[in-house]
TrEMBL record:
PROSITE patterns: HTH_CROC1 (PS50943). InterPro entries: Cro/C1-type_HTH, HTH-type_regulator_Rgg, Lambda_DNA-bd_dom_sf, TPR-like_helical_dom_sf, Transcription_activator_Rgg_C. One of its GO terms (molecular function) is DNA binding. Residues 15-66 form the HTH cro/C1-type domain. SUPFAM superfamilies: lambda repressor-like DNA-binding domains. This is MutR family transcriptional regulator.
Length: 282
């Protein structure tokens, strides 16, 4: 177990113990010393299977469920750290660096066949393709990430993030199927849905994009989430207004929401979007 997993295990154990109403002294009695549990919860030591099993059993908590949650939590933290580092390259539309990073991450996955390597490589390729749609994807990575997403039974934050970031590698039919599942299970954020609508718009799947935007209208948008509200209105205008009106409304939106805040680079990106992609026939 790596340092990150060790920390997550201790934090999860602490949460379970509190929820079950056990003090450290009560839980440790007859099994371990209280100081050992304190150190485990603090992330300074790890417990063996033989020590952890009776503690979880005493709290009526499945050992399998515990390990699954620790692994998911660790994967989420590692993926978030990767995204934080990759975001600046993507936001700058630095295509040469994006392509280089994608190739390097593909090579890592082909060597170690690790899950983290897979989702990082797939994300890098997908985001690169979102900048340059002619970019040739890696068939192995595309196949493996597709297989993974098709097998997902529970859509947590990690799974939704992977789907959202890797959607440029998926067929429109698969995106549609997964999106419906996410809406039904109420596991997806408004921004994630808007990003999927954006992808469908770029693929000229206008009816599906319109259906997704309509679903977003049924969600309660956070009034303080300016990015989500902006992109929702931007996409809604494109999909429901005629081209001339949509262009005027969106330019007003860009000037009032982005340029007024000094986000000139982001404003320019959305202006280019309207010239780069065809307007639907409304």
């Amino acid at each position: 177990m790596d340092r990150l997993s060790k920390t997550n295990a201790g934090q999860l154990f602490h949460k379970i113990r509190n929820n079950r109403g056990f003090s450290v002294a009560q839980l440790s009695s007859g099994i371990l010393s209280p100081s050992t549990i304190n150190k485990f919860e603090a992330g300074t030591i790890q417990l063996s299977f033989f020590n952890l099993a009776p503690l979880l059993q005493k709290m009526d908590y499945s050992l399998d469920d515990f390990y699954n949650q620790v692994q998911t939590s660790s994967a989420s933290a590692s993926y978030r750290k990767f995204l934080d580092g990759f975001e600046s390259i993507y936001q700058e539309n630095d295509l040469p660096t994006l392509k280089k990073a994608s190739q390097e991450l593909c090579a890592v996955y082909e060597k170690d066949q690790n899950f983290q390597s897979l989702i990082q490589a797939a994300t890098a390729i997908s985001l690169t393709k979102s900048v340059d749609q002619s970019y040739e994807t890696n068939p192995l990575i595309t196949q493996r990430i597709t297989e993974y997403l098709l097998k997902v039974n529970y859509w947590g934050k990690l799974e939704v993030a992977i789907f959202n970031n890797c959607s440029f590698l998926l067929t429109s039919q698969m995106v549609k199927t997964i999106t419906k599942e996410l809406i039904y299970s109420q596991s997806v954020s408004a921004l994630a849905l808007i990003n999927v609508a954006d992808l469908m718009y770029q693929r000229q799947e206008y009816q599906l994009a319109k259906e997704i935007v309509k679903q977003v209208e049924n969600l309660r948008l956070n009034q303080n989430d300016l990015v989500t509200r902006f992109k929702f209105l931007f996409m809604k205008n494109l999909l429901t207004l005629d081209a001339s009106t949509a262009r005027v409304r969106n330019q007003q939106l860009i000037d009032g929401s982005l340029r007024s805040l000094g986000s000139n680079s982001l404003a320019s990106t959305f202006e280019v979007y309207m010239t780069k992609h065809s307007f639907p026939n409304t």
